[in-house]
């Protein structure tokens, strides 16, 4: 599951974790960093030449990065037939990840950027490059990040990257989860609609995290409260310039001029 922090991946993670065949668990925090490092090597021709001269081919580095990611994702939680990773922003490296893991599937969580930024700022969720004192800057960063990840998702294609809107998941959880499980090739389980009932202890169901600020919400049933929390919180000058600040709002089906509520299209 890949997107910007605050886009609903924690909710999807909790719902998928309630399925007996899946284990997602907390964000690892290290997977995006190793991908960023690998991308830096690939972007620099000078660095690439140095690595090749040292006998480190693209294949060797790719195998090493894949082994590192697999070790982390598999062993940082309980064993399961399927494992998933929900570190944010990793879809920026989606095409590269698919080369490392040809059988992988991606879920691209999409949410109204105004709600995302309000969630980050109000909950004080630290995200590299986001200034939590500045709505304008955060919305610009959100828009740029979503543009990059949307491009990766579309390049991967619908068989490998499923777009899921947070608003649709909250308003229509059953139909959206049916779509997600069908995409993953997994049988339907009603448990995914009642994830909060499975959160009994960290040993049994490790959904709540001491480091993921959004995980305190997964103890609650799916609710629609978050769809309107951002309304009235964004400065007037930012609201006025919204179309320019965050062009990805309209590209993703949200109305930058509607400041009363979030509606997914």
UniProtKB/TrEMBL annotation:
The UniProt similarity line reads: Belongs to the protein sulfotransferase family.
InterPro entries, alphabetized: P-loop_NTPase (IPR027417), TPST-like (IPR026634)
* The enzyme's E.C. designation: 2.8.2.20
Query: Pfam families under this entry?
Result: Sulfotransfer_3
Task: Give the catalytic activity.
Answer: L-tyrosyl-[protein] + 3'-phosphoadenylyl sulfate = O-sulfo-L-tyrosine-[protein] + adenosine 3',5'-bisphosphate + H(+)
Kindly state one GO CC term assigned in the UniProt record: Golgi apparatus
Q: Name one GO molecular function term.
A: protein-tyrosine sulfotransferase activity
Q: What does this protein do?
A: Catalyzes the O-sulfation of tyrosine residues within acidic motifs of polypeptides, using 3'-phosphoadenylyl sulfate (PAPS) as cosubstrate.
Report the protein name in the record.
Protein-tyrosine sulfotransferase
Q: Which UniProt keywords apply?
A: Disulfide bond, Glycoprotein, Transferase
């Amino acid at each position: 599951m890949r997107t910007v922090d605050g886009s609903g991946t924690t909710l999807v993670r909790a719902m998928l974790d309630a399925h007996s065949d899946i284990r997602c668990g907390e964000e690892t925090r290290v997977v995006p960093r190793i991908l960023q490092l690998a991308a830096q090597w690939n972007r620099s021709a000078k660095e690439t030449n140095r690595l090749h001269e040292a006998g480190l081919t693209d294949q060797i580095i790719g195998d090493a990065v894949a082994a590192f990611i697999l070790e982390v994702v598999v062993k940082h939680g309980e064993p399961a037939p399927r494992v998933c990773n929900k570190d944010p922003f990793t879809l920026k490296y989606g095409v590269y990840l698919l080369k490392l893991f040809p059988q992988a599937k991606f879920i691209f969580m999409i949410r109204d950027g105004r709600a995302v930024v309000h969630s980050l700022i109000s909950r004080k969720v630290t995200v590299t490059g986001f200034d939590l004192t500045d709505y304008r800057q955060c919305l610009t960063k959100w828009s740029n990040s979503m543009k990059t990840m949307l491009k990766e998702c579309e390049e991967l294609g619908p068989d490998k990257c499923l777009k899921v809107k947070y608003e649709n998941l909250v308003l229509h959880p059953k139909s959206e989860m049916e779509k997600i499980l069908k995409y993953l090739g997994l049988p339907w389980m009603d448990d995914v609609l009642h994830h909060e009932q499975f959160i009994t202890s960290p040993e049994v169901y490790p959904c709540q995290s001491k480091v993921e600020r959004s995980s305190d919400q997964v103890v609650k049933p799916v609710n629609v409260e978050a769809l309107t929390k951002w309304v009235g919180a964004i400065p007037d000058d930012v609201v006025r310039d919204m179309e320019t600040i965050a062009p990805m709002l309209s590209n993703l089906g949200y109305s930058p001029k509607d400041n009363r509520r979030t509606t997914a299209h």
